[in-house]
Structure formats: C-alpha cells, structure tokens
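Let us practice reading a record.
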Amino acid sequence: MNISTHFIKTLLRTMICLPVAICASSLAQAAGEKALIEYGEKETQRAELIALDDVSLRFIDAASADAPETPAAKAAQTLPLNTLRLIHVLRAESSTPTDAPIRLSLSDGSVFNVANVEYSAGKITLLQKEGGETKTLPIQSVKNIVFQTKTLDKEDEIGNTWRSAVEKKRDADLLAVVRGDALAYYDGTILEVTNETIRFDLDGDAVVLKRDRIFGLAFGERQFHAGATPATTDPTCLVSLPGGGEIHATRVLLGERSGTKRWTIHAASGPELAFDYFDVEKIDFRIGRYVFLSSLKPESVEQKPFFNMPNLSKAREDFLAPGSGENENDFQISPKTKIVFRIPGKFQTFSSSVGIAENFRPRGSALVKIFLDDALLWEQTISGKDEPVEIKLDVVDGKRLSILVDYGENADWGDRVVFQNARFLK
C-alpha cells in the first residue's frame, strides 16, 4: 500500500492532538472559556482567559482553573501584549456556521462568510449564522459581496475576472451575473439589498432583481455613498473566524458583558465589531511583525493536473495544503498550480527557502515563478540535485503575491516544490 508522507503526518498529528481536543472540550464545559496561548519563543500554555486589553492578557492556568476553589489556585497571570504570538480558542462545541453561502469582503482585506446580508440607507447588515446576532457595517468599509461563492471557488476563470473587476477603481457600483462560462457586468447604483431582491439603478431606471440570480455586487467610490471612503490602518493582528472568515484587525479586546465573555474587534478599515467568545477561532499577533503564508487562506487556487483523475486531484489538494511541507510553516505545491495570496497589510519583503521535496531528491525539477500583482518578480528552475534556494523579494505597495509552479525537465516526476518558512516581513 502506498501511503503518502503527508497522510502519515496528518494521522500522527491527529493522534497526538485528539486527547488534547477532547480534554479541552470537557474543560470548557466544566470551567469556562479555554484557549491555547502561544507566546515568547513559541512557548505554549492552556489557559482560561479573563481579559485582553491594549497592554496585556490576563488568564488563569487551565489546570489551576479546574483545581479546588482556593486563592492560590485561582491566581491570575499576566502576559504583555507584545510577547503574544497566537491565541487559539478551544471550543466546547463547533460554532461554525452551518449555512454561510455569502462572502462579504472589506476594503482592508477582511472576509466574512455569512448566512445573510442586507443593505439599506448606507449601512450593511450581516448575519453570520442562522439564529445569531446581526452586525452592522458602514458602506464605506465594504468592498464587494459574492452571493454565488460555489461558482467563485469552482470556476477559475470566473474567479479571476471577478477579482480583476473589483480591483479597478470606479465611481459607479457594479453588478455581475453569470452568462454561460463568464460574467456580465453592469454599472449603476446599488439602492437596496434584501434577503430576496436587489434594487439597482441602471441608467436612471430602478430595476428590482431576484437575488439568487445575481453573482455579486461591488461598491464604487462615489462620494454620495454616505461619506468619503475611510483610510485603512495597518493591521496588528489577524483574527480567524469559524467557517473560514478573517478580520484584519488593529485592536482586539476581551471583556465580560452581562456575565458573558465577548470580543471587541476593530477592523483595519474602521468598523468596531462584537463577537461571542466562541465566534472567534484564532488571533495571530505575528502579523504586526511577520506572517507565515501557511497561516493565510489563499485568495484563489488554480490547478491543471497532468492527468485529470479524481485520486490524483485529491492527492494534489493534500500536497497543496498549508503545513504539508517539512513543518507547520511550510507548504508544498505540485506543477500546473497557481496559488494567490492577498498581502495582509504593509509588508515589505517576501522571504522563503524554495526546493524540491525531500522525499523526491535528488530527482525532480520544477519551474517556479513569483508575481507581485501582474509583474514577474522572480523565476527559476528548481532542481532536486541542488540545495534549496533562499529568496527575499520586495513586495512594497503590492496587493497580491502569486506563486506559479510548472513542470521541470522530468515532466510530472518528483517535481513537488516545498516553500519553507514562507512569510511576509516588515
């Protein structure tokens, strides 16, 4: 039986982490909100969080939190904010939205996968999950809304043309519908969005359209959108949400309201949002200094395998997954794959070690191209006979980094490329 190295690693990680997950679940049910804290030089501690402010994190050690009620056992500890790396929320039960078919993007790069979104009188109202609370955003901070996310994720060409269209500066709003294998775009003004219809001003005529027929909407930069577009502040942390959303945040607070722990998150584009404790999955503070690409969700992935076989496609998906390299900060890409990352904030450098996967050496070769937006930054054929190549590329003022891996000299034989410690640096 041929079992991939990635499968074995994944199985071992699952076997190692499963007892912790079970323990964390029972602890959360018994003694409040638990989290795994990573700080300093990658030290970790399981804790019950008390509060997070602009200076420090206060918490009780998880083991102490479950100890008999004594002053010594319940003594709070403090970590300075500038020593924090990650906070992983350990949920007693999954709070992942069961139905979040709509994707809403902010001008700062934040993304929400939501159950519903409506627009009226200059404000966006979103519902993250059925039965949850609604949140309100000023229209100035919202960039676009995609109603047909399955089409966006599945159809590479549609996804590419949509991303290109919404990046262009325009005064008018944009409405997109699917026509065959492509998108048709219409300029106008978005007047109202309800859970069933969209009212759109097209050449002076207000038309009402069924929402399920619309692919997406993009908001223009017109001054009559209730004020000028606010400046985006450089984020200090990246907040991951259940269901795949993320917020580029400048400030995150944790406190108690009416006996319940609540997060207050300030998005880089301005909005202040409140979340229940378990509606946040992870907070990555490293983004203020550096961020690993393995911790980011790719904006898009295009794959054109040598043979279009289901088992081969699945294998390629596995190898593409972040953390599928030699360690958790690596990722591995097969040929005929293009992966695009949005650069989260004002980073100056992309740094990585690039080489053929260890288990294919000394065979294998692949052509690697790296683009900043549409400009080619770096191109080289990587050989399994050579040591990995160290690269540092200037990404100042760029919005997206694209990595394209193509066949080398040996076609599809042993040409999987590992990007070790691939990260953006300030």
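A brief commentary: Residues 69 and 75 are 10 Å apart (CA to CA).
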